[in-house]
Design a protein that fits this description.
This protein has 446 residues and is mainly beta. It has five helices and 26 strands. Strands 2, 4, 6, 7, 9, 10, 11 and 13 form an eight-stranded mixed beta sheet that branches.
């Protein structure tokens, strides 16, 4: 009778132990880093149904990875550093090799503690990897192995005094593709009024430069720029550029003296600008993400183009790398390297309105701007002198107000290298968004 019961009991025992031995999993964490950076990777263990008494492991990694340090969990609640009833394991041995690293652990020599069955995400070690500075954007593998050391260290867990090969889950470090510093050039869009009677129109645009914040992708930010070049094209049948002037942080370089090299060129179909802040690197500019105005460009409609046009028209200012000889590129310079700019074109919408053309800052309406206009303004404002019924012409600084700042602006422009008046200037025309009340009469432009 006893033989009939013994065999089933033995069969049940074998099945139960086998299940214990095959339920463990070792996993490698994943991370991303830039070339030349360091990153921590966690190595974890799931005990499954077995009580684990210890383990050994080998970890092989891509040649572009170098192990710089290994931690046993640094006091984490569920780690090798606390596995023996809150204390580190009795035996922890790690070794670093060119191809990876190994670890051997005995939790308690006397069997006083084990890693409990059902434990998950137990932290065996945290390893710091250095990514080769020359590594290309790719995935660098990290896998459990049994080939490191002499003799080679096997990747096993110990359950019930027996070693068992766990299920290995490898990981990887993704090497990020770090974008270059990114800058943008933006030309402002404008609505320009003109009179169909003569078709004259003039306006100005702002050109701004900004830096894109790519710091989340590993790109240093902000970047110190050393210069730039750009070219902006237009439809020569509709527009002609009349002036291109540096403003803002470019004009402020060297205490207001401007850049070491600054050159603008006007062509039939557009204009170009090239700047080197300082030949010895003494002057630099950091651009904001919101953009900083660096150029003011003035335009006029081609004579007669809008004469009799009651409908209006739209045209565009397009960034171009084909202007000049040799062609001028749209680039920003950082650390001696040029980076192509992101380019934002402008639309110019011409609207026909019944307004009076004028010449800005020509307060006495004699068809020119000189010291006489400043005298005229002061006499008008403070001495009851003659008055020109065209606030647009009187508003020399284009701030929307006719006051003492306007004759001062004329004096600075004429004698102190001050800013040129805004359009319409230096020829008669219509200001952008001009309304009939802005200039009631101005015979010198008829």
């Amino acid at each position: 009778m006893s033989r009939y019961f013994l065999l089933p009991l033995c069969f049940v025992l074998i099945v139960f132990v086998t299940a214990d031995l095959k339920a463990q999993t070792m996993s490698v964490g994943n991370a991303s880093a830039t070339a030349g950076a360091s990153v921590d990777i966690d190595f974890t263990l799931d005990s499954g149904a077995g009580e684990i008494q210890g383990w050994s492991l080998g970890v092989c990694s891509d040649p572009s990875l170098t192990v710089s340090s290994i931690s046993d969990g640094a006091g984490a609640a569920n780690s090798t550093s606390t596995v023996k009833n809150g204390s580190p394991a009795d035996f922890i041995e790690t070794s670093i090799y060119a191809e990876g690293w190994t670890q051997g652990v005995v939790i308690c020599f006397t069997g006083c503690a084990v890693l409990a069955a059902g434990s998950t995400d137990f932290l065996m070690a945290t390893t710091t990897y250095d990514v080769n500075p020359t590594a290309s954007p790719t995935s660098l593998s990290i896998e459990y192995c049994s080939s490191l050391g002499s003799p080679p260290v096997s990747t096993v867990v110990v359950v019930g005094g027996a070693s068992n090969t766990p299920t290995p889950n490898g990981g990887a470090i993704e090497v990020l593709d770090i974008p270059d510093p990114t800058f943008s050039y933006t030309a402002s869009s404008e609505v320009v009024n003109y009179s169909p009677d003569d078709g004259s129109a003039s306006f100005s645009i702002d050109v701004s430069a900004a830096e894109v914040d790519n710091s989340a992708l590993g790109t240093p930010f902000p970047n110190v720029t050393q210069g730039f070049s750009m070219g902006l094209a237009h439809d020569s049948t509709i527009l002609e550029a009349t002036s291109v002037n540096f403003v803002g942080p470019v004009a402020a370089l060297d205490g207001g003296a401007g850049p070491g090299f600054a050159e603008t060129s006007i062509y039939t179909e557009g204009w170009t600008a090239g700047v080197v802040y300082s030949f010895i690197g003494a002057e630099t500019i950091v651009f904001s993400t919101g953009g900083d105005n660096i150029i003011e460009a003035q335009y006029s409609a081609v004579a007669g183009y809008f004469s009799g046009n009651e409908e209006g028209e739209q045209t565009y200012l397009n960034w171009s790398g084909g202007l000049g000889s040799p062609n001028v590129s749209n680039v920003m310079v950082v650390a001696g390297n040029s980076y192509p700019a992101q380019l934002n074109d402008a639309s110019i919408c011409f609207e026909a309105v019944s307004v009076t053309p004028f010449l800005r800052s020509d307060a006495n309406a004699d068809s020119r701007t000189d010291v006489a206009d400043a005298v005229w303004m002061l006499s008008d404002l403070f001495l009851g002198g003659p008055h020109t019924d065209c606030n647009g012409a009187n508003d020399a600084n284009n701030d929307g107000v006719y006051d003492t700042a306007d004759p001062v602006f004329v004096i600075h422009y004429q004698f102190l290298d001050g800013t040129m008046p805004s359009a319409p200037f230096p020829d008669c025309g219509i200001a952008a968004n001009q309304q009939p009340i802005d200039c009631l009469a101005y015979p010198s432009c008829n």
